[in-house]
């Protein structure tokens, strides 16, 4: 009898590791099936489109790294939008200086600007003026004035555009058109639509009295 029990035990011991592995596998499967599922990854927080701060009767001044004044922005009220890092300004007035120190001023009923006022969109009674000053070669460039209901200006590239009617005055010359793209660096202006122009000849330059 004892001999039979020993033989049975020997056979059982052969299969015992396999049986134990099977039990462990079943236990692991049960734990996986019955464990709570991990919480779903929280959706990314949506970018805030509402203003995150407001200003009243304010002025903002920016400088370049060397300490030179770059721009001054004044307004009756303003709202900052964090999703685009833009400032919407009511009754805006802007003074901006390029690397040569040339002054550009702008006014409008409303404006949208980036953080350092290098890109400005002007809405309603928009007026942008580049004062007469010498260029890099010392030649005095005439005063340039833009008027319209919408102007898009980039002071870094010295470019002014509009998809609405614009009046451009350069010195005594006057041009009007339905759209405009003006590059101050190349002195090239593209107007489309109903374009009209009036060029006033400089009598001193022509030798006439």
Short description:
By secondary structure, the chain is of the alpha+beta class.
How does this model look, in words?
- By secondary structure, this protein is α+β, with helices and mostly antiparallel strands.
- The chain is 18% helix and 48% strand.
- It has helices spanning 2-34, 203-206, and strands at 53-63, 69-81, 86-97, 103-113, 119-130, 133-134, 140-141, 144-154, 159-162, 166-170, 173-177, 179-183, 188-192, 196-198.
- Strands 1, 2, 3, 4, 5, 8, 9, 10, 11, 12, 13 and 14 form a twelve-stranded antiparallel sheet that branches. Strands 6-7 form a two-stranded antiparallel sheet.
- A hairpin with a 5-residue loop joins strand 1 and strand 2.
- The longest helix is centred in the N-terminal third of the chain and has 33 residues, at 2-34.
- It is globular.
- The N and C termini lie far apart (143 Å).
- Mean pLDDT is 79; it is low at 18-32.
């Amino acid at each position: 009898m004892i001999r039979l029990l020993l033989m049975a035990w020997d056979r059982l011991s052969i299969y015992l590791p396999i049986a134990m592995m099977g039990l462990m596998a079943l236990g692991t499967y049960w734990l996986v099936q019955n464990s709570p599922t991990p919480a779903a990854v929280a959706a990314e927080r949506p970018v805030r489109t509402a203003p995150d701060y407001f200003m009243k009767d304010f002025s903002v001044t920016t400088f370049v790294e060397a300490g030179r004044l770059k721009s001054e922005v004044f307004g009756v009220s303003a709202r900052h939008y964090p999703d685009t890092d833009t400032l919407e300004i009511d009754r805006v007035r802007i003074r901006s200086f390029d690397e040569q120190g040339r002054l550009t001023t702008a006014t409008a009923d409303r404006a949208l600007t980036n953080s350092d006022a290098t890109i400005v969109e002007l809405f309603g009674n928009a007026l942008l003026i580049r004062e007469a000053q010498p260029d890099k070669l010392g030649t005095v460039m005439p005063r340039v004035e833009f008027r319209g209901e919408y102007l898009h200006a980039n002071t870094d590239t010295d470019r002014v555009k509009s998809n609405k009617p614009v009046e451009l005055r350069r010195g005594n010359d006057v041009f009007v058109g339905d759209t405009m793209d003006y590059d101050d660096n190349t002195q090239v202006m593209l107007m489309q639509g109903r374009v009209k122009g009036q060029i006033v000849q400089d009598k001193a330059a022509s030798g006439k009295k």
